[in-house]
Design a protein that fits this description.
There is one protein chain. This protein is α/β, with parallel strands linked by helices and about 280 residues long. About 50% of the residues lie in helices and about 10% in strands. A 6-stranded parallel β-sheet has the order 3-2-1-4-5-6, sandwiched between helices. Strand 4, helix 9 and strand 5 form a beta-alpha-beta unit. The longest helix has 21 residues. Homodimer.
């Protein structure tokens, strides 16, 4: 005998945001700066495109995936005479942390729309949380600066604090519990990376992919604005096509558009739609 449950038709309960490229650090440049500096210090060539490929993952895993890339692995073997090991990953991670902390300190400016989103969430009784591939040590550098700018998420979860980082759903689950959400169908996960969208989908949440301010474009706000109209349109077109492949329920250029999307999600929930 099967038991059927009614679809969730309550309110949007929580919005869970990624940090870099989603609500802070337009272009998600701090991690790239740190990885390029780390590999240069090791005498290894790393391109920005390569550095961005594993974006959204916990930083040890990010290093592990970089070292597994054939071109980089060949460089490592030529330099050391052996394949990279887990001990190498751990050593590189500890060398990476100060580079990342410094880059975060330099790139903690909120993306336009973050404060409006926070006000929208408060006005509608929606809890606001963030999660990230950064460690707590890294996030603790950023949070005071975010508070200074007026942004105060009610839950902050780091990849190093859950059994497995993205694309596993555990960070989003932890945010949902800390925010008091009672149904994942009432939660919205917002991210600028494919692995972050996969996290939200694995958690059974609504997902919103951020394009222009994030990893898919990889330019600062001023760099993007300095492109001529045709270049900018082509850049955004390619990035939208890339992020559409993630399976996200919605694509937006920046979180400035998110309140309208959340209102639409609320209408769909009330109509009986599920993520």
């Amino acid at each position: 005998m099967y038991r059927y449950t009614r679809s969730y038709t309550g309110p949007v309960q929580a919005i869970i945001l990624d940090l870099a490229g989603t609500c802070v650090d337009f272009g998600s440049l701090a991690p790239i700066q740190a990885f390029l500096t780390l590999f240069e210090s090791e005498g290894l060539s790393l391109t920005e495109a390569e550095a961005r490929e594993p974006m959204g993952t916990e930083k040890r895993e990010h290093i592990r995936q970089l070292l597994a890339m054939p071109r980089i692995q060949r460089q490592w073997q030529d330099r050391t005479g052996a394949a990279p090991t887990e001990e190498d990953v751990e050593r590189l991670y500890h060398a990476f942390v100060p580079f990342q902390v410094q880059a975060i300190a330099e790139r903690s400016e909120l993306i336009p729309g973050a404060l409006n989103l926070q006000a929208f969430a408060r006005d509608h009784g929606i809890k606001l949380g963030v999660n990230t591939g950064y460690s707590r040590e890294m996030v603790n550098v950023m949070l005071p600066e975010l508070r200074r700018q007026g942004f105060e998420p009610e839950s902050v979860v780091c990849a190093t604090e859950v059994p497995q980082g993205r694309p596993a759903p555990y960070m989003s689950f932890c945010n949902a519990m800390e925010l008091g959400a009672t149904a994942v169908q009432g939660c919205v996960k917002v991210d600028d990376t494919a692995t972050g969208i996969e996290e939200g989908l694995n958690a059974g949440m609504w997902t919103v992919a951020v394009v222009a301010s994030g990893n898919a474009v990889g330019l600062s706000q001023s760099q993007l604005e300095q492109l001529d109209d045709d270049e900018r349109a082509q850049c955004l077109r390619v990035a939208h096509q890339k992020m559409a492949l993630t399976g996200a329920h919605y694509l937006i250029d920046s979180i400035d558009e998110l309140p309208e999307v959340v209102a639409n999600i609320q209408e769909r929930i009330e109509a009986g739609d599920r993520p």
